[in-house]
Amino acid sequence: MSGWLIVVGLGPGAEAMVTPEVSAALAEATDVVGYIPYVARVPERPGLTRHASDNRVERDRALHALEMAEAGCRVVVVSSGDPGVFAMAAAIFERVEEDATRWHDLDIRVLPGITAMLAASARAGAPLGHDFCAINLSDNLKPQALIERRLALAAEADFAIALYNPRSKARPDALDAAFALLRETCGDDRPVLFARAVSTPEEHLRIVPLPEARGEMADMRTVVIIGSSRTRMIPHAGRPILYTPRTTP
């Protein structure tokens, strides 16, 4: 097969956070596939066709990309952040697994990007400096009961927790429910970071103790990081530094 398919991450928003490797792939592409706002981040140019689609058609998008690459196109599938973190890389490979013989010889690659939790952590300091986990609060692809179980176990294990897709119009109460569950399990004033649109002109960071955290403080452009019991704040000019020490008692 002469075509190829590369799944890339565009980072959290700023052009400077797109890796040179990803930029090179986009420069060679004949076709770019992805969710509408992510495709819009790729400039139009002669020889490039952009295929934008809704967020709830990942399986269709993945198959379309594979079929174009099979036909000889140079296809880049774009995600925000990193393509392997709650994004399109897994969707592509789900489709590949369904018909592995068909796609056996197709050149498929994944190029990493800076995901939202890492960009947010860096802006605030190092709240993910020790053991942590990431949980997607969207129930589109998994049951709510599983989300709640993972939240409870992560809190019990005293991980710092990064929450993706914390709140949407379809799930306006999801984040408040998560905070209520965490308050029951944690029972302390550990810090909660709300990091919105990191690296863009709309960037905004806010840190509050867990008892004061409210769902309305976030939207779908926000990543929420809940510290562990050992996460600390250091007073500092400009804004405090939030970090979790690597040393253990």
Automatic annotation (TrEMBL):
One of its GO terms (molecular function) is precorrin-3B C17-methyltransferase activity. GO terms for biological process: cobalamin biosynthetic process; methylation. InterPro entries: 4pyrrol_Mease, 4pyrrol_Methylase_sf, 4pyrrole_Mease_sub1, 4pyrrole_Mease_sub2, Cbl_synth_CobJ/CibH_dom, Precorrin_MeTrfase. The keyword Methyltransferase applies. It is an enzyme of class 2 (transferase). It holds the Pfam family TP_methylase. It comes from the Bacteria. Its EC number is 2.1.1.131. Pathway: Cofactor biosynthesis; adenosylcobalamin biosynthesis. Residues 5-213 form the Tetrapyrrole methylase domain. Gene3D superfamilies: Cobalt-precorrin-4 Transmethylase, Domain 1, Methyltransferase, Cobalt-precorrin-4 Transmethylase, Domain 2. Keywords: Cobalamin biosynthesis, Methyltransferase, S-adenosyl-L-methionine, Transferase. PANTHER family: COBALT-FACTOR III C(17)-METHYLTRANSFERASE-RELATED. This is Precorrin-3B C(17)-methyltransferase. The lineage of its organism: Bacteria, Pseudomonadati, Pseudomonadota, Alphaproteobacteria, Sphingomonadales. The gene is cobJ.
